[in-house]
Amino acid sequence: MYWTEFFIPTNKEIPADAKIPSHQLMLRSGMIKQESSGIYTWLPLGFKVLKKIENIVREEQEKAGAIEILMPTLQSAELWKESGRYDGYGEEMLKIIDRHNRLLIYGPTNEEQVTEIFRAFVKSYKNLPLNLFHIQWKFRDEIRPRFGVMRGREFLMKDAYSFDLNEEESKKSYYKMFISYIKIFKRLKINTIPVVADSGEIGGSLSHEFSIITNTGEGEVYCDKRLFDLEFDNDDLNTLSDLERVVGRYTQFYSATEDKHNEKIFREKVPEEFRLKGKAIEVGHIFSFGEKYSSPMKANITNKEGKNVSVYMGSYGIGVSRLVAAIIEYSHDKKGIIWPNSVTPFHVGIINVQVDNKECLKVIQEIKSKFEENNLEV
């Protein structure tokens, strides 16, 4: 790709409301353009990075057994009333009334929608386990959107939803997603800290959030940095004990958000040279919530004994558009962004300092072709 054939509308000025490096660098480099509060157009350079992250997420989710679908951005409010979440979600929910006076919701999350899909088609335990995921734009009407795409109102997110016969099988699905998330973040070259988390509005008894330490995060996280040195083995991970063993390797190390941090235990468990604390950016969150949605929405299956039972569920989210900003916060210097090879918009830049020299142009074109033959974008 030649610069003259591409569209990179760079900016020399930094807007006054761009407070953190990722927001500043994304605007200056022509990756995004703000259209209104918390809403952005993704320009070609930013869109290339966004799609590369999306593809990595997709590949690893499919390797973990998840199947991709695409759910609509608009959902029926009746589904949310059925689950009991409609009245409690708050003003972040954008509500729309169509010409037939039907109340719709611009989806902030998709637990209700995917539960409705499941109950429409799946009736027997023989169809389980099942894990469905989609990558779709969402909207939450943040009262104070800030930090660019880090905390916008419209954002691209990957959601996966698991369906299992019982609690033990549901744990297997949960741990598979835990491992898949670690693999995703390793491919993105960001050291991620899995932390036991509150389930919040989503609900459930088992939850982890995945955070990275930067200079501009919200809230603090404490951890043992030895967890960053762990590597995966190539063992098959099919049984619950196998999955628990691998997940246990990551959760054995101390990690806690500031609201759950215990300084005494931190000092007892972690040698001083391995203690790490800093501001955290959440890049993923996973939940196991059993029958929280399946029971009120009557998403039932027939088990091996012929009994009608509620399916066990979990949900697993990654902010794809947020990851673009998070990677920049994690990896930049005074000269600009330091992209991981896996998501860089271009791998190599060639500058012709003798534009009128035909021989020079010929050599540059040969070099460009060699790079492209080796799957490097120029």
Describe this structure in words.
The structure is a single chain. The protein is of the alpha+beta class and 378 residues long. It is 30% helix and 26% strand. The protein is built from nine helices and 18 strands. Strand 14 (300-302) and strand 15 form a beta hairpin. Helix 1 (21-28) crosses helix 8 (320-330). The model has no long low-confidence stretch (mean pLDDT 93).
Write the layout of secondary structure elements.
Blueprint: H1 21-28, E1 32-36, E2 39-42, H2 44-63, E3 67-68, E4 74-76, H3 77-83, E5 94-97, E6 103-106, H4 111-121, E7 130-139, E8 154-164, H5 167-187, E9 193-196, E10 206-214, E11 220-224, H6 240-251, E12 255-257, H7 263-269, E13 275-290, E14 300-302, E15 308-310, E16 312-319, H8 320-330, E17 332-333, E18 336-337, H9 358-373
Parallel strand pairs: 3-7
Antiparallel strand pairs: 1-2, 4-6, 5-6, 7-8, 8-16, 9-10, 10-13, 11-12, 11-13, 13-16, 14-15, 17-18
Helix pairs in contact: 1-8, 2-5, 2-8, 5-6
The count of domains is 2
The secondary-structure element order is HEEHEEHEEHEEHEEEHEHEEEEHEEH
Largest sheet: 9 strands, mixed
- Tell me which CATH architecture of the largest domain applies here: 2-Layer Sandwich
Estimated helix fraction: 25-40%
Distance between the termini: 6 Å
Radius of gyration of CA atoms, rounded to a whole number: 23 Å
> What gross morphology would you assign?
globular
Beta-strand percent range = 25-35%
How many helix segments? 9
| CATH fold group of the largest domain | BirA Bifunctional Protein, domain 2
Q: Give the CATH level 1 class of the largest domain.
A: Alpha Beta
CATH superfamily assignment of the largest domain?
A: Bira Bifunctional Protein, Domain 2
Report the uncertain regions: none
Rounded average pLDDT? 93
